[in-house]
Design a protein that fits this description.
It is a single chain. The protein is built from 20 helices and no strands. By secondary structure, it is mainly alpha-helical. α13 runs antiparallel to α19. The two termini are 31 Å apart.
Length: 500
């Protein structure tokens, strides 16, 4: 898992300077927008993958594998039924040349026409890939986790090599659209024979398609779709909106900020809470709500500490790192960096609770709130952009920050109190840790801005060690962690509800 995640993050980071070496800033911005719109079309997956994984896992646990063929057949058919209207809408947008108005501020007039063609081609390939995502989800549900991880690692490597080979042969945006889109379809389809090789009974049979089963799959998938919608809106809409309200040559800078925070930082902050999900499931099945609450609080503190330190290091080294990462471009969009960093920290505070609620299957109301936040962020960003307030890119970041403040401060804490009984003291300790660490960085900057690049890193490390032990963790949690470190027994941690 760690190796797979590490390669994904590394490959995404490397593709930014590689792409800017072979493409102009405007061409790279166009390619980013095409990929982003393709991910929107990927929402036609509708959360079915998670539902398939859950149902396959339940069948595997009960040793009732006879029904796997019907499950896979109905999911595969339902994917196609969902994809068809998406594809017709895609063709209508291309035929009506609706994309010409989206890039009205593009320096190159021809990019509007190119965008429509590229989105139509890449979107068609994305929609062809979506039904085949049934089978990677089935691998996870069948507990073939090593095979699933190997499959994802190989797929990531091959996609990375596809981009490099395309550039090596002089390919531009159109070649990237065809090569990466086509490779994604073939790699997704390759998961089907992998499933069949381990479970021959898991095969597609159209005679097993049942509308009642498909309706059940769709109903169970709605909450997972909402979570996916929230992720896609926060991850990709800033780049798409930047193309509309600024210009394509600014899009790479916005994309770099979002990638740094919403991909790299988010993945790192996600590790602690993802790691405890199996324990949460086990404790939830045993009805040990107090231990679930204690584990959720502890995961929140560790995940948020990772997010705070990562954001602080980004702030300390932003000028040096971003200018070298985006070379030959010069990074100038510090307004959106500041706003998106604040929104990232607010969202990261409640990320572990999301994973805990998903593990306990209590995530439906939370999924709705997250989807509202993602849509509201884009809507507020558009309103600010139309009003002409702040700099063009800063408006986008502020829009998502406002939505994050409303949802995370106004609604989610109440939901956690109801669903988990999480004490507000836990969140207060996290907020105190973040405030003191950033206050120390601010004091260093006021004392001597030249010391920030070197001294800032030292403040982050020392501050995390001191504040983490004294402010973030309660005395009971410190004692429990010390006992766990001394213990070598590979069992689930026994946590008392002493965390605050």
């Amino acid at each position: 898992m760690v190796g797979n995640l590490g390669f994904k993050l590394l490959s995404q980071a490397l593709l930014v300077p590689v792409s800017l070496h072979y493409l102009s800033a405007e061409e790279y911005g166009l390619w980013i927008v095409v990929q982003s719109l393709g991910f929107y079309l990927g929402l036609s997956e509708f959360g079915l993958g998670q539902t398939v994984m859950n149902r396959m896992g339940a069948a595997f646990a009960r040793r009732q594998m006879a029904g796997t063929a019907a499950l896979l057949s109905n999911a595969f058919a339902l994917y196609h039924l969902i994809a068809v209207p998406f594809w017709l809408a895609l063709i209508a947008c291309w035929w009506g040349n609706h994309w010409s108005r989206w890039l009205a501020k593009s320096p190159s007039a021809g990019n509007s026409t190119h965008l429509g063609l590229y989105v139509m081609l890449f979107g068609t390939l994305t929609l062809l890939k979506v039904p085949w995502t049934t089978f990677p989800a089935a691998l996870a549900g069948l507990r073939e986790l090593p095979l699933r991880q190997l499959y994802e690692l190989v797929a990531s490597i091959l996609l990375f090599l596809t981009v490099l080979v395309t550039f090596a042969f002089g390919g531009r945006v159109l070649a990237l659209v065809l090569s990466t889109g086509g490779a994604s379809v073939m790699l997704a389809a390759a998961a089907y024979p992998l499933v069949r090789s381990r479970y021959p009974e898991a095969r597609i049979r159209l005679t097993l398609v049942d509308p009642r089963v498909m309706r059940g799959l769709l109903a169970d998938s709605l909450s997972f779709f909402l979570i996916s919608l929230a992720y896609v809106m926060q991850r990709y809409s800033p780049s798409v909106l930047a193309a509309k309200y600024t210009s394509l040559d600014v899009v790479p800078q916005v994309y770099a900020v979002v990638t740094l925070l919403r991909l790299v930082g988010w993945s790192l902050a996600d590790i602690p809470s993802r790691s405890v999900q199996p324990y949460v499931i086990m404790l939830g099945e045993q009805g040990q709500e107090r231990q679930v609450r204690a584990l959720a609080c502890l995961a929140t503190k560790f995940s948020f500490a990772v997010a705070v330190v990562f954001a602080a290091l980004v702030a300390v080294h932003a000028n040096w790192f971003l200018n070298r990462w985006l070379a030959p471009l010069r990074f100038t969009e510090y307004g959106i960096l500041a706003a998106m960093t604040a929104a990232f920290l607010l969202d990261a505070l409640f990320l572990p609770a999301t994973n805990v609620l998903v593990a306990l299957n209590r995530h439906k109301r939370l999924a709705l709130l997250l989807a509202v936040q993602g849509l509201a962020g884009a809507a507020v960003a558009v309103l600010l952009a139309e009003a002409g307030v702040l700099s063009p890119t800063a408006r986008l970041g502020v829009g998502f920050l406002i939505a994050s403040l409303i949802v995370n401060v106004g609604w989610i804490p109440r939901l956690l109190k109801v669903e988990l009984g999480m004490p507000m003291r836990c969140l207060a300790r996290c907020a105190g840790f973040a405030f003191l660490l950033w206050a120390a960085l601010g004091a260093l900057w006021l004392a001597s801005p030249r010391l920030v690049p070197v001294g800032g890193s030292a403040v982050c490390l020392a501050g995390t060690w001191i504040l983490g032990g004294r402010i973030l963790l309660s005395q009971g949690e410190r004692h429990q962690l010390a006992s766990l470190v001394r213990s070598i027994r590979p069992v689930a941690p026994t946590l008392r509800s002493t965390s605050d």
